[in-house]
Amino acid sequence: MPEKNRTDLPRRELTVGEVATRSGVAVSTLHFYEAKGLIQSMRSRGNQRRYPRSVLRRIAVIKIAQRTGIPLADIQKELSALPNDRQLLASDWEHLSAHWEADLNERIAKLTALRDQLTSCIGCGCLSMRDCPLRNPYDELSEKGTGAYLIEHAGEEQDEATGCNEGSAE
Amino acid sequence: MPEKNRTDLPRRELTVGEVATRSGVAVSTLHFYEAKGLIQSMRSRGNQRRYPRSVLRRIAVIKIAQRTGIPLADIQKELSALPNDRQLLASDWEHLSAHWEADLNERIAKLTALRDQLTSCIGCGCLSMRDCPLRNPYDELSEKGTGAYLIEHAGEEQDEATGCNEGSAE
DNA sequence: ATAAAACCTCAACTAAAGTTGAGGTCAATA
DNA sequence: TATTGACCTCAACTTTAGTTGAGGTTTTAT
What we know:
Chain A is mainly alpha-helical. Chain A has helices at residues 16-23, 27-35, 54-67, 72-80, 90-122, 138-143, 148-153; strands at 42-43, 49-50. In chain A, β1 (42-43) and β2 (49-50) form a beta hairpin. Chain A has a two-stranded antiparallel sheet with strand order 1-2. Chains A and B meet through α1, α3, α5 and α7 of A and α1, α3, α5 and α7 of B. Chain A binds a DNA duplex through residues 2-4, 6-7, 15-17, 26-29, 31-32, 36, 44-49, 66, 71-73.
């Protein structure tokens, strides 16, 4: 029966193991987050990690951001760009969460648009390069300049001009 | 000026390069997809890949599925589980797209729930393990039995019972 | 016939987000 | 005090979705 009282003074610093169980992330992940600059730790004389309780809040924020689909590198940037850099204030949370909410909304809008196109194309199945909205992802295009549009439309004139519902006309 | 007429008989088999430009994916990606069993090719006497035109439709379907967030391995499974396995019929598309639509809807619902929680928590920021809906992702839980719930709630009684809006109470 | 463009294979590399293991140290308890 | 569980570092491995490069062959056009 490990993880016992451990001199349970009301408010001590936490060990990695304690942070791990209380936050629900693995010890190796805490090491990893530290290496990536997402969290910091103090060390005991014996070089073991010791965390202030505020790290739990920080990890909670990281996990929420991840759920919204933000990559760790971006989370790190935003956390470290905070005025103070260490403690997460309520105002920080307000700032971050508002930002992430906007991000989430964008991704939801994108997926919803895709879903609607898919819905309207289920009965069709033409996938025509010219006519099918599924084949013309302009939104993708504007979000990153891959040049996909130009590539996808090269040779368009004489190719793939299949009518709707032709099945497998090969 | 490469990629010229190349004996432009009305309907020939396509080379990798042609498939690449017409589908908008790189040649290396076509190799990769073939290695993963997502597409197949015939070979010329000189061992070069030759594709039937139907491969363009197949790639279109793969790309759409990817946009919805389906991993390639799953796409491969679904494509290879098709009655016929080679040509994509309109009925196949109907089947696949209906399935993916359901999948998409689920993901949209999840993100929307998260967004709503985020919205309601922006002004709060308590992130309380006990009270904050953002900290209790039951949906995640039911989708994969990570045991996150139990871990996240271990030691709940005496810890992290922070009230709302306490800022950084460290 | 020959040069250039396109193609081939195979191995190695990339990025993200971690996990696993080896070899060794620290700390709390019996 | 000794043991055991927790901890340390560092390197290597995992997965997904590809990309890059080396070294060599095939096609096509001139």
